[in-house]
Amino acid sequence: MAIWLSLCGVIVLIAYLLGSFPTGYIAVKQLKGIDIREVGSGSTGATNVLRTLGKGPGAFVLVLDSLKGVLAIALVYWLFKFASSQNFIPPTIDAQVWQPWLVTLAGLAAILGHSKSIFLGFTGGKSVAISLGILLAMSWQVGLATAGVFAIVVAISRIVSLSSIVGAIAVSIFMVIFHQPLPYILFGIAGGLYVILRHRTNIERLFAGTEPKIGQNVATPEQTT
């Protein structure tokens, strides 16, 4: 049991480190030679990269950040497949019950890593793109439905932060609609609340009517991801 718990702990740690990998920071540093945390919103996420470098680099960071989430969850699936083939799973462990819980822990660790990167002094993005990757790996139906809500809201409002917040709320609803296991529903609630909390300054600006739309320049820290 001790070996199994250690393996699970290592997977959660790797998920955090994957989330911590500073994709946006590296992209802007390499292409423009600046610290993205000192420009635009101060976030290392895809939206700030979009505003800083344009559509191409922004899309590139969006995809890579999403892939970090996919990889974090894929590691859990791999662990169970490998451990099952090698008889590493203790007989007292029900893999079908245990796996969703470990997926949830790995997903939360990756989200935390993205927003509190160990490589950037525990700064980072707002965990929207990586959350999408995690959702797609957990349940592609929930991931696509959430992405659809995000796309609809951003098409209507042209405000990324509002779209992210609405998407974060929708996750839990879709988890229930698509009959996901309890750990995934709890992930939807906890992850959604965390993403919303990361947007608290955006919420203040939304109520004040000062939140920037896509295409508008921003120069103050802590805008949207």
Describe the protein.
With 225 residues, this protein is mainly alpha-helical. 72% of the residues lie in helices and 0% in strands. The protein has helices at 2-20, 23-32, 46-53, 55-85, 95-115, 128-138, 140-157, 160-177, 182-198, 200-208. Helix 4 (55-85) packs parallel to helix 6 (128-138). The radius of gyration is 18 Å and the shape is globular. Mean pLDDT is 90; it is low at 218-225.
Largest sheet: none
List unreliable stretches of 5+ residues: 218-225
Global morphology: globular
Order of helices and strands: HHHHHHHHHH
- How far apart are the termini? 40 Å
Query: How much strand?
Result: under 5%
Determine the mean pLDDT.
90
Helix content: over 70%
Number of strands: 0
Which structural class matches the secondary elements? Answer: mainly alpha
Number of helices: 10
Rg over CA atoms = 18 Å
Topology diagram in text:
Elements lengths: L1 H19 L2 H10 L13 H8 L1 H31 L9 H21 L12 H11 L1 H18 L2 H18 L4 H17 L1 H9 L17
Summarize the structure.
72% of the residues lie in helices and 0% in strands. With 225 residues, it is mostly helical.
Kindly list the characteristics that best describe this protein.
single chain; 225 residues; mainly alpha
